User: Fold this.
Amino acid sequence: MKASFILEALNRPDLSVHHLYWNSDTKTFSAEISELPPNFQVKPTLIVMNPKTGNTRTFRQYKVDMDSTHEDTYGWRYRSDDNLELLIIND
Assistant:
């Protein structure tokens, strides 16, 4: 029972495509962090789900955009295995 609960938690989507903007030219999803659900957390891997199809896609963080002093974070960049991008903007 515990193993199935852990597996379910690991596969639970972090975001829905309904929370994100899509730029078809750059193949990038984006969102300002203030517009995301209150329980959203930035983490190394995010799962995004399309509720219409039920499909999910895993995005892995590859870069954190910071100011020159490394005190302020501007955003977090993620990439999927099929090279779609996800940008979370720290507004």
About this structure: The chain has one domain: 13-89.
